[in-house]
Every structure is written in C-alpha cells, then in structure tokens.
Amino acid sequence: MMNEILAAWRWNGSVSEPVPYGEGHINQTYALTVTSAQGAKRYILQKINTDTFKDPAGLMENICGVTDFLREKAKQRGADPARATLHVVPTAAEKPYYQAADGSCWRVYDFVENTVCLQQVQSAEDFYQSAVAFGNFQHQLAAYPAHTLHETIPHFHDTPKRFADFQRAVAEDRMGRAAQVRREIEFVCAREADYHVMVDLLAAGKLPLRVTHNDTKLNNILLDKTTGEGLCVIDLDTVMPGLAANDFGDSIRFGANHCAEDEADLSKVNFSMELFEIYTKGFLQAAGEAFTPLEKQTLPWGAKLMTMECGMRFLSDYLEGDHYFHINYEQQNLNRARTQFKLTSGMEENWDAMQKVIEKYC
Ligand code: ADP
Ligand code: GN1
Ligand code: MG
C-alpha cells in the first residue's frame, strides 16, 4: 500500500519508510527522508481525512491557491518563501495529491526544517509570536479572492448547529455514556443562548466575512527554532471565509492556559489573563487595523464560543464512540471536553477584564 503511494511522486533519491509524525487530530501525518548524493531532505506525507473533508480536490485547490499567494507576499517583503508558507510537492502526474486504488487521498509537503511545533504554551514570547503570525496570516489574505475558496467543511463554526449535533448525540447516547457525563451535558445546555451571538451578528450584516484559518491552535504554526519567530502557518485544510473573532478565539481556547488540551487534573487547568493579554496584543498589532469596532468588541465572544464549541464537539465525539478526533486512550475526548468547560468558566469569571484588555489594544 505505502509503496503504491510513494511511487506516485518523482523522488530525487532513495526514500525512507514513512514514520508517523506530529499530533494532529484529523489527518494521518508521516515524515520521510529522501537521500541522494546531494544529501538528505525530509518531507511530510499526509493521508487526507476524507471522512472529514469530502472534497479533496477542492481542498487542495484552496491550499495551492493560498500558499502561492502567501509565497508571493513573502517574496515582496524579502522573507524566505520556502519557510514562510507550506509548499505542496506535486505528484509525478503533476497533481497536487494522489488518489490511491483504495480511494484514499495523499499529499506531500516540503518539511519546514529548523522549526518547532508546540503542543502547549511554554513561554509568553512563543504565544505572542503565534499571535503575530496568525494575525499576519489573516491580514495578508485580506486581499485573497475569497469567492474562489471552496467551503471545505460547511457550517464549520456554526455554533448553534454544533449544539444541535451535540443534542442529537446526547439523545442517541450510542455508547451508553451520557449518564456518566450529566454535569458536562448540563454545562453545555445552560449556555444555549450564547451560541447564537456571533452567527446572529453575521446574519444581520453587522460582522464581515474574512478569509480565515479556522483552526488556529498553537500546534498549527511552526516557530523558527533559532529566532523563535512565528514562521509558517500550517494545517490549511480549513481556510475558508469566516469571522476574525473565531481565529482569535480558537488560539485563546488552546493556548491561554498552561496545560495540555487533555489534562486530566482540572485543578491545573486555568484560563490565563496574562496569556490572553499577550495574544490580544500580538493579534491586534498584526491584523487589528483592518477590523471594525464591533469585530474588536466581539473578540471575547470568539474566545468563549470557540472554547464551548470545541468542548461540545469533543463531548459529542465521546458520546458517539470517538470516531472524529484521533484518541490515544479511552477517556481522551472526555478529558478534552472537560478542559474546555473549565476554561470557559475562567473566561466567564474574567469577562469584564477581557473586554478591558481588548479596549487597551484597540
Ligand atoms: P492535522 O490536520 O491532523 O492536525 P497537520 O497538518 O496540522 O495535521 O499536521 C500535523 C503535525 O505535523 C503538525 O502539528 C506539525 O507538527 C507537523 N507538520 C505538518 N506539516 C509540516 C511541515 N510542512 N513541516 C514540518 N512539520 C509539519
Ligand atoms: C482538530 O486538525 P487539528 O488537530 O489541527 C479540528 C479543530 C479542533 C481541534 C481541537 C478539521 O484540529 O476544529 O479545534 O482538532 N479540525 C477539524 O484540538 O475538525
Ligand atoms: Mg493540525
């Protein structure tokens, strides 16, 4: 199977066995090395999750379009275009991905060397750098022709729809797990009125759609190992028209605390106002100029709703038997959901302070 896949690319040397790589929840990612007389060069090979992404051709068209665009921008500002964005390696048939005989879809990227990818915040500076990079990403793509983008997952950040899916998962209770998570279910249901806030503002024409990343967690960015600079935004599968506050918010839900996403000891999981402020500063410095006053005011809503949305998605997956997010142990999705709810409580306690921080950097 792997031989058939590897044979689809024209490698300039001998190819090593692909080894599983990284900690993404969706695609299957491998690293491989090609050795030739010129030396060794690494690549990322990914099996695109086609249960999640139903239109791999449209998805790869988005990624090629966006990365070509970002490469041009990097050249214009004198940055190294090979490190500023992903580079899709075309197949021998000059296609952006390969569809194997069994229907699975595969792509190859150049490995961006001399970088680090963090699973949780280690220093405030790293988090600040990620904020600047995600802010710049959105700022640069402001000029991208949004109408050419395929919607790779319809209703991706439609929080009321996510809540309806959650209610269905609870009602079906396929694994018989609902009884053990009553408190968590109540926590989600108690916040039902909140889930409409952003989609209603969008529907009323009060918030603009922008080209956004939609999955801005810290491990979707590569930091330069030497300078610590936020270098390359990766995981571009969900680049679609969306709300600025959601890109801001998804970074906050993942990064504005000192724990892993699945930390089992909730006493350690605490929303950090210090990290919230650092991210706000970097993100608004990089992208804020273009935002409307209401977009800025609603950034705390982005944080709270992305956290609740993700929490209910993890809990739904736990109730449905863990078929969406990759897990390494049985309760992982439940642990992930619980951290999100604890973080939400922290945001609710700090709601006024969050607004003040936004005002400070406007
Ligand atoms: P998923 O959609 O499953 O999250 P990602 O595209 O985010 O998959 O890739 C998973 C991990 O692989 C990343 O978190 C990162 O560690 C690593 N990775 C992905 N692409 C590259 C690349 N071009 N160079 C170096 N590391 C990469
Ligand atoms: C998934 O692909 P990855 O691991 O970067 C998910 C995000 C969630 C995140 C939670 C396409 O992101 O929406 O916020 O897990 N991506 C998709 O960690 O569903
Ligand atoms: Mg990822």
TrEMBL record:
Transferase as UniProt keyword: yes
Gene3D superfamilies linked: 3.90.1200.10
Signal sequence interval, chain numbering: none
Keywords: Transferase
Pfam family of the protein (one): APH
Molecular function GO labels: transferase activity
Bilayer-spanning residue ranges: none
Domain Aminoglycoside phosphotransferase positions: 20-256
Domain of life assignment: Bacteria
PANTHER family in UniProt: AMINOGLYCOSIDE PHOSPHOTRANSFERASE DOMAIN-CONTAINING PROTEIN-RELATED, SLR1880 PROTEIN
Name of protein: Phosphotransferase enzyme family protein
